[in-house]
Amino acid sequence: MGNKWQALKDHHAGIQDRPILSLFDQPDRAHRFSARAAAMLFDYSKTNIDDTAKRLLIELAEVSGVAEKRAAMFGGAKINDTEGRAVLHTALRAPEGVQVMVDGADVVPAIHATLARMGAFAEDVRQGRFTGQGGAITDVINIGIGGSDLGPAMATLALAPYHDGPRVHYVSNVDGAHVADVVKGLDPTTTLVIVASKTFTTIETMTNAETARKWMAAKVANPAAQFAAVSTAADKTAAFGIDASRVFGFEDWVGGRYSMWGPIGLALMLAVGPDGFEDFLAGGRDMDERFLSEPFEENLPVLLALVGIWHNQICGFTTRAVLPYDQRLSRLPAYLQQLEMESNGKSVAMDGSALPTHSGPVVWGEPGTNGQHAFYQLIHQGTRVVPCEFLVAKRGHEPDLAHQHLLLVSNCLAQSEALMRGRSLAEATAIMAKKGLTGDELDRQARHRVFPGNRPSTTLAYPKLTPFTLGQIIALYEHRVFVEGVILGLNSYDQWGVELGKELALALQPMLEGRQSAASKDGSTRALLDYMTTSAA
Ligand code: F6P
Asked: Which atom of ligand 1 is nearest to 196's Cα?
């Protein structure tokens, strides 16, 4: 495998200064360096990937064992081997009748039984058969964090045009400001609280759940009756006092950041209804089938991963901007930060040896066109190259605002064009000369208006952000993470890197409360503790 990495690096060294624009001398480049998944189009022609790079990248995926590991994952093998678990979020969207075996048992029937229970409960709430003490449920608060929040929160926002249930709110941060701001103005007697936590031990979630229970207890005789839970830990949900009829379980082979397809998606289901949720699952299933069957050259998750490997590990670009020209995908970058960085932000290979390459990139972003008026300056003229990933729908949901959608799309296409094309000093000089500048001042002013160009981007275009399309997009990104993880040789499904901070936070609590000496702490931490605990304002 080492020689594939080297071959890619050697190839890159020879072409790194070549203008991407020159690749379009090949008339069918846009067609040959793009792929479709049904009506969805992934265009990666505005990158410096050429035929040789593409061939080498695909060979890298092949020798890394992507196909074999893909079969192992879908088949229920325990590929999360630092935790001894299978990785089966795909089973959450598997159709009835398909068999997925874990430890000798088919897990699909239980998944569908839980989905049916979720559907029945969601419909009871939506139709007013399940009520609060003050009447039909008007508001739902999902209390969770990380994978128990980001997925459903992102999707609830994304699918706003499909909401026909109660209003759904999300509380995640242990900062009391979050829960306080969300409950302000809500009526506890008509609010349902979902405590969503895979482990049911996460301190932020359990603290917020207690706060919500107290808030409700002030107005509701039996607050537990207006609580539901989503967890793998039935004993703990029972200890919290939530009736088993409102507890929706899942298994430990569903990773937190991959869990929105099952019970963790309950709040989303309440918002869009069981049918809308089923469309979302169908979109994910559609992408699974494509991922399993398409040749690598046309396989969207594989191609997204290979473009990622090219930019990060081969070209050395350390971050990637995700730029949805779709306001309702405004939480997609945050969701992807967990999905990608918690999965592939690691320094150790499967066998415990140091990773020979860099791990996954920093992922960040904001929706267009907002970002254009903020950080795009750096993307266009900064000294570092930031590969950009644009997402855009052909149509919006507001037919009477179609002119705004056209503006949105033209801005999206303009940005990828500008990044690639740039503006030379000669062009900038001509523009400024037309404005009447001459001599040194013309030269000085023109230099500020140069765009280096040759900055890579990809565009994922889709017909409309429906539940089905959203399901396709999320499954696409999940599989991209899988493929990148396999190529990097790491375990994408554990997250040991979050543990140390949690342990230290627990240890700091008694010091903040003044119950324990901070003498063991470093000078900086002691000084900060001192600042936090002294009475002066
Ligand atoms: O601390 C990280 C993490 O374990 C994530 O992986 C997970 O999504 C999140 O915390 C929440 O965990 P839980 O669902 O168990 O509350």
From this structure: 14
Residue closest to 322 by CA, chosen among 342, 299, 298, 341? 341
**Roughly what angle, to the nearest 10 degrees, separates helices 467-488 and 66-74?**
120
Strand 362-364 and strand 101-102: the pairing is: unpaired
Within 10 angstroms of residue 172's Cβ, the number of other Cβ atoms is 22
Ligand 1: list residues with CB < 6 Å. 145-148, 197-199, 202, 205, 256-257, 342, 495, 498
The residue type of 106 is D
Helix (H, G, I), strand (E, B) or coil at 525: helix
Q: 319 alpha carbon to ligand 1 midpoint, in Å? A: 24
pLDDT digits (tens, 9 = 90+) for 321-346: 999 999 999 999 999 999 999 999 99
Question: What's the confidence (pLDDT) of residue 537?
Answer: 67
Expressed in angstroms and rounded, the spacing between residue 151 Cα and the centre of ligand 1 is 12
Sign of the Cα pseudo-torsion (118, 120, 125, 129, in order): negative
Tell which one of 202, 205, 208, 232 to mutate to probe ligand 1, the residue whose CB is within 8 A of the most ligand atoms: 202
Q: What is the pLDDT of residue 2?
A: 73
Locate the ligand 1 atom nearest the alpha carbon of residue 204 and give its number: 16
Q: Which residues of the chain have pLDDT under 70?
A: 536-537
The pLDDT tens digits of the residues spanning 232-256 come to 999 999 999 999 999 999 999 999 9
- Give 113-156 as a 3 state SS string: HHHHHHHHHHHHHHCCCCEECCEECCEEEEECCHHHCHHHHHHH
Ligand 1 center to 483 CA (angstroms) = 22
Give the residue whose CA is nearest to atom 16 of ligand 1. 197
Residue type for position 219: K
Helix (H, G, I), strand (E, B) or coil at 48: coil
Q: Radius of gyration over alpha carbons of the chain, in Å? A: 25
| CA–CA dist 530, 537 (Å, integer) | 12
What is the token pair recorded at 394?
Answer: 């052909």
Instruction: State the distance from the centre of ligand 1 to the C-alpha of 239, rounded, in angstroms.
Output: 20
The structure's pTM equals 0.97
- The set of catalytic residues is 342, 373, 502
Distance separating alpha carbons of residues 337 and 501, to the nearest angstrom? 18
| 523-536 core/surface letters (b: 16 or more CB in 10 A; e: else) | eeeeeebeeeeeee
Contact yes or no for 171/196 (Cβ under 8 A): no
Among protein residues, the one whose CA lies closest to atom 3 of ligand 1: 146
